[in-house]
Amino acid sequence: GKWSQAAARYGVLTRLYPAETRLHIQLGHALKEQGKLHEAEASYRRALALQPLNNDAWLHLGHALKLLGRMTEAQAAYHAALRLYPENAAAEMELRVLDGDW
Q: Which residue among 37, 77, 84, 89 is least enclosed by CB atoms within 10 Å?
C-alpha cells in the first residue's frame, strides 16, 4: 500500500536499468494505484517500446486507458493482449465488460 515509495524506488530502478521491461510495468502499477494515470500509461508504453509482444504490458495499458475513459484505446490494448495470449482471462473479461456482454 505504499505506492508513493514504490513508485519512487521503481523510478530509480528504471533509470538504472532502462532496458528492464518488468521494471517499467511495476512502475506503471505503482503510478496507477496513486491515480497518476497519464504517468502510468507512459510507463506501460515504455515497456511496450522495449518489448512490443509483452502481454502483461498490453493488459495493464488497457486498464490505465479504461480508467482514463479512453475506451476505444483500452479495447485495442485488451485485444492486443488477447492476441498475444489467447488464454488471458483478464483481457477477455475486460472486453466483455466494455462490450456490454457481462
A: 89
**Angstrom distance (rounded) from CA 30 to CA 92:** 24
- Locate 73 and state its grid cell: 484505446
- What are the grid coordinates assigned to 18, written together? 532502462
Supply the DSSP symbol for 36.
-
Task: pLDDT tens for the chain, 102 residues: list them.
Answer: 899 999 999 999 999 999 999 999 999 999 999 999 999 999 999 999 999 999 999 999 999 999 999 999 999 999 999 999 999 999 999 999 988 876
- Which string of DSSP letters, residue by residue, matches 52-67? TT-HHHHHHHHHHHHH
Report field, pTM of the whole predicted structure over 0.90: yes
